Amino acid sequence: MTLTTTNIPELKLFKKGKVRDIFELEDILLIVATDRLSAFDVVLNDGIPSKGRVLTELSSFWFNFTSDIIKNHMITTAVSQFPAQLRKYQNILADRSMLVKKTILLPIECVVRGYISGSGWKEYIKSGSVCGIKLPKNLKESEKLPEPIFTPSTKVETGHDENIAEEKMVSVVGTDTTKIIKQACLDIYKKSSKYAESKGIIIADTKMEFGLFNDEIIIIDELLTPDSSRFWDISEYKPGTIPPSFDKQFVRDYLESIHWDKKPPPPKLPKSVIKKTSEKYRLAYEKILARKLLTI
């Protein structure tokens, strides 16, 4: 079943994101990861089968895996433990929903880069640095950095986030908060990258978000998924190239090939593109979790 819209009349819709539908249950939230996909900041009309399940189950795994580094917002992903009025929606919620703590969002995207790629690469070839961090000369695209770097960005509801220097982050959230978040991000990246490499995946970079819960900084949203990270297959990695990734890049490449103007309404995706994209998400899941994603 492909889910692009969540219909739970009993609950108040808290927020509808590009991918997630978030509902309010007093002091907690229900996050439902749909199969929607956005490209170039436009939500496409075609869903990607199993995408929401991949995002939820990978986030759940990584939240547990990194809970020794920093607390997170996850309460449970088991529908059997959800409030009674939600259990009749088992067929919608199973494997793609999460009850979480409601937090005060910190307005910064927190990016860790272990490899030079994407917007970081574009900034590097212009200035030799990323977010004010000077990098070695003559790096190749996709090359591994000597050490992972913390490169925050603004968080905006529409349009593109903008890379900022760490000093700018300090002016937004404060010195102590910046220090705690930076250390947590780097520790999460290092621990998770080592594990992913043992499964044949390079985490080139990843994005994290944080919130305040009872005045404590915790990690929220999603964690180390193909939507928030750049995953590469170790066997296909070569510096100086753009390795194939386990995410929606396949869709972006298709949309570029048909010269779409990147404005609504979006074009319809061919079945072959939908199928291939779904396979990429599933493969990331199966490599990291070392189990098959069962079709439901």
Protein architecture, described:
The protein has two domains: 12-103 and 265-289, Phosphorylase Kinase, domain 1, CATH 3.30.200.20; 105-236, D-amino Acid Aminotransferase, Chain A, domain 1 (2-Layer Sandwich), CATH 3.30.470. Helix content is 30%, strand content 25%. The chain has helices at 51-65, 90-93, 118-127, 166-173, 175-198, 249-257, 271-289; strands at 12-16, 20-25, 28-33, 38-39, 42-43, 74-76, 97-101, 104-105, 108-115, 129-130, 133-134, 144-150, 153-154, 201-213, 216-220, 229-233. The strands form four sheets. Strands 8, 9, 12, 13, 14, 15 and 16 form a seven-stranded antiparallel beta sheet that branches. Strand 1 and strand 2 form a beta hairpin. The chain is globular.
Which bin fits the share of residues in helices?
Answer: 25-40%
Number of strands: 16
Structural class: alpha+beta
CATH architecture call of the largest domain: 2-Layer Sandwich
What would CATH call the homologous superfamily of the largest domain? ATP-grasp fold, B domain
Give me some keywords for this one.
alpha+beta; 16 strands; 7-stranded antiparallel β-sheet; 2 domains; Phosphorylase Kinase, domain 1; 7 helices; 296 residues; D-amino Acid Aminotransferase, Chain A, domain 1; 5-stranded antiparallel β-sheet
Topology:
Blueprint: E1 12-16, E2 20-25, E3 28-33, E4 38-39, E5 42-43, H1 51-65, E6 74-76, H2 90-93, E7 97-101, E8 104-105, E9 108-115, H3 118-127, E10 129-130, E11 133-134, E12 144-150, E13 153-154, H4 166-173, H5 175-198, E14 201-213, E15 216-220, E16 229-233, H6 249-257, H7 271-289
Antiparallel strand pairs: 1-2, 2-3, 3-7, 4-5, 6-7, 8-14, 9-12, 9-13, 9-14, 10-11, 14-15, 14-16
Helix pairs in contact: 1-7, 4-5, 6-7
